[in-house]
Structure prediction request, 232 residues.
Amino acid sequence: MTQPPRLAGRDLRRTFGTGQAEVHALVGVDIEVLGGQLTAVTGPSGSGKTTLLNLLGGLDRPTSGEVVLDGAEVLSAMTESEVLATRRSRIGYVFQTFGLIPVLSAAENVEVPLRLANVDPAERTERVATILERVGLAQHARQRPHELSGGQQQRVGVARALVAEPDILIADEPTGQLDSDTAATIMDLIVELTHERGLASVISTHDPLLIARADRTVHLIDGAVEVLGSAG
Ligand SMILES: Nc1ncnc2c1ncn2[C@@H]1O[C@H](COP(=O)(O)OP(=O)(O)OP(=O)(O)O)[C@@H](O)[C@H]1O
Ligand SMILES: [Mg+2]
Prediction:
């Protein structure tokens, strides 16, 4: 028996506004992501990438269609508190603008999801140290975001997303604020962690060099998936 996809979107539609102001951001998107697989979502500005990632991560709900985990759990049908619990335990987010809390050190930022999950202090310290080491920031644990480079800040963002050991990783243009060399190192880190930890990862990006590193690509045009590379 083949295993169901860790994360799937089924005929996802999302409409914003009503009447004259109605915007059809997604018009029927299907996507499947397996554990250990990195999918890149690409497409022009306004094509629906952020909308799709927000649905897949439980930050927003579809107008119709479903987000399904492990072929069974329908994220898009859960209550708010169930969505929150699922997000905390299973879904890690990386944001384009890093989203770090300025007054907290790198280590304290990474610790936030563990505090929310009521992990005890000794274990928190241990897990924060381990993930900071993994992303190459062991020497920078006590620095605040403004004392770190953009690439280092995004490493903190990746560490925070993964410290609670989710099995799904969502990253909306995680390298959008970074120069191309730094972007490549962050992308390498995300690729490595996806494979190492067996994550089902979805990132959105405009960068062709990053797209080349993904296992699969989903190209959106006007809220629909355009089939790439099909012969004929
Ligand atoms: N909250 C909202 N209210 C109204 N319209 C929205 C909302 N969010 C997105 N849209 C619209 O939905 C469409 C898709 O937007 P989305 O942000 O998903 O695009 P994107 O592919 O992420 O673009 P970019 O590359 O610029 O980030 C756009 O037309 C946008 O204006
Ligand atoms: Mg976007």
About this structure: Residues 180-197 form the longest helix (18 residues).
